[in-house]
Amino acid sequence: MRYRKSQDVPGELRSVTVSLCAGRWYVSILTRREVEVPTPIGDTVGMDMGVVNFAAFSDGSFIEPVNSFKRHEDALAKAQREMSRKVKFSNNWKKAKAKVQKIQARIGNVRNDFLHQHSHEISKSHAIVVGEDLQVRNMSKSASGTVDAPGRNVAAKSGLNRSILDQGWGEWRWQLGYKLQWAGGLFAVVPPQNTSRECPLCHHTSGDNRKTQAKFLCVKCGFEENADTVGAINVLSRWLKRDERQDTVDASTGRGTAAEIAWQVSPAQGGQQQEPAEETVSE
After folding, report:
1. Is 228 a catalytic residue?
2. Is the residue at 70 inside a domain?
3. Cα distance between residue 29 and residue 32, in whole Å
4. Which of 1, 230, 278, 281 could share a disulfide with 216, CB 3.0–4.6 Å?
5. Does 283 reside within a domain?
6. Any idea what DSSP says for residue 27?
7. What tens digit of pLDDT does each residue of 87-116 get?
């Protein structure tokens, strides 16, 4: 069988898989070879996943979402309605089904291209990325409930579930993990509880600190910052405060507290924020 060799295939050939997807044929070639583990380049960064911002980082940067499904949702719904009107397994039904599969493949290709490009960029510029240990399956469960105990805000929760699944968080975590490993880096996770409600300066934790989706305002010390950035700062701080065992080189020496990280990202404004006090250690 002839195929287009788009790139060199180094190493010992192990297997070849030919697959058909949405009318297109693909060849996947698995090889085995030894490579040297490179020295990671870059610093350590915390990451907070979201829907409005696909990812926010502790250095104040963001990645905007691609929303692949949302962009093609109307076209997909129209194609699915046309397919439902055809006689099942007829020639017209098969043509309509192929059209639906083509749109679905386009949605997946747009999402995968987005994830590959950004995960490659981050893995090349950071030695360690710390994220939240999110349980996507639990977060995207249906809220419809049962006949005896119907759910509340079902429509809103359904829309949120679609948005969460549209981001591809599981695929993102997998891609970022193996690409950082290839580059000699590390992808680590921490518990996600209250990362967007805890103040990185005074550590006051309350739901009142985040009354809107985008804004974080500590009701105790007045610290103000983007809520997603605050979440990423707290994620990084939790990992830096882990137990004393150091399995990897910490590229963020000197940034061991959330207050220090927050102060670098968001300096004081109008005297409302107080610079974190230095700790005095007596010998």
Report:
1. yes
2. yes
3. 10
4. 230
5. no
6. E
7. 999 999 999 999 999 999 999 999 999 999
Contact 190, 238 (CB under 8 A): yes
Residue 167 makes CB contacts below 8 A (sequence gap 6+) with 49, 51, 54, 65
Instruction: Report the distance separating Cα 74 and Cα 190, nearest Å.
Output: 37
Domain tally, the chain: 1
137-152 pLDDT tens trace:
888 887 777 667 777 7
Residue in 132, 198, 225, 260 annotated catalytic: 132
CA distance 154 to 151: 6
User: Domain span at residue 178?
Assistant: 12-265
Q: Please, is 60 exposed, middle or buried when counting C-beta atoms within 10 Å of its C-beta (0-12, 13-18, 19+)?
A: middle
Q: Decide if 250 is catalytic.
A: no
Let me know if residue 271 belongs to a domain.
Answer: no
Tokens of 254: 């000197």
Answering whether pTM is above 0.85, one says: no
* Assigned token pair, 251: 């590229």
3-state DSSP assignment of residue 224: strand
Q: Can you tell me whether residue 226 is helix, strand or coil? A: strand
What rounded mean pLDDT belongs to the chain?
85
Residue type, 160: L
Is 73 assigned a catalytic role?
no
Closest-CA residue to 268 (of 235, 216, 221, 233): 221
What is the C-alpha separation between 209 and 203, in angstroms, rounded? 11
Residue 38 lies in a domain: yes
Of 73, 228, 247, 278, which one is the catalytic site residue?
Answer: 228
Rounded CA separation 195/197 (Å) = 6
If you average pLDDT over residues 20-24, what whole number do you get?
A: 86
- Active-site residue identified among 36, 48, 148, 208: 48
